[in-house]
């Protein structure tokens, strides 16, 4: 410890993280393994996640920017793979952390972008209802598997809450430290 204050420890941690490419601010670490992990003393968790320039807005803006970049690709298979494996799952981590009523509008924006790029891949101006449905169907059912976060909002959040509840029960029974 060497008699260092908490502020000195915090400053050296911020420098260490910044050297590794992690963005930090007074509100906390923006993303660590895809999830916000800390908030500052001046803001609430809700403000950090859902505020005007909060985490949801930043993640969604990055996904929308990436969608525009995907549309600029001239190769349709490259568009599809970038969309399927990178962009369509960009909000999935948040489905386990943020209540569906807060996340749904952001997930809807991403889904609209996915449909727009899907139309580009299929070389059409607009998609029919059947084409829209095929974009979101799993591959085993003849779909493109581009569901995005919208179809899993409720199930992922409930499953996460259930998992946390199970963990707390185990901790209480084995360690007896949480009341």
Tags for this entry?
single chain, 179 residues, mainly alpha, two-stranded antiparallel ribbon, 2 strands, globular
SSE blueprint and pairings:
Elements: H1 6-19, E1 24-25, E2 28-29, H2 45-50, H3 55-72, H4 76-87, H5 92-95, H6 100-121, H7 129-136, H8 153-175
Antiparallel strand pairs: 1-2
Helix pairs in contact: 3-4, 3-6, 4-6
Report on the architecture of this protein:
The structure is a single chain. With 179 residues, this protein is an all-alpha fold. 60% of the residues lie in helices and 2% in strands. The chain is built from eight helices and two strands; from the N terminus they run H-E-E-H-H-H-H-H-H-H. The chain has helices at 6-19, 45-50, 55-72, 76-87, 92-95, 100-121, 129-136, 153-175; strands spanning 24-25, 28-29. The chain has a two-stranded antiparallel ribbon. Helix 3 (55-72) packs antiparallel against helix 4, helix 3 packs parallel to helix 6 and helix 4 (76-87) runs antiparallel to helix 6 (100-121). The longest helix is centred in the C-terminal third of the chain and has 23 residues, at 153-175. The relative contact order is 0.09. The model has no long low-confidence stretch (mean pLDDT 79).
- Spell the H/E element sequence: HEEHHHHHHH
Principal-axis shape: globular
| Total number of helices | 8
Q: What share of residues are in beta strands?
A: under 5%
Spatial arrangement of strands, main beta sheet: 1-2
Which residue ranges are poorly predicted, with pLDDT under 50 across at least 5 consecutive positions? none
Q: Mind summarizing the main beta sheet?
A: 2 strands, antiparallel
Helix/strand/pairing class, anyone? mainly alpha
Number of strands: 2
Question: End-to-end span in angstroms?
Answer: 31 Å
Rounded to the nearest angstrom, the radius of gyration is 20 Å
Summed over residues and divided by their number, the pLDDT gives a mean of 79
Helix amount: 55-70%
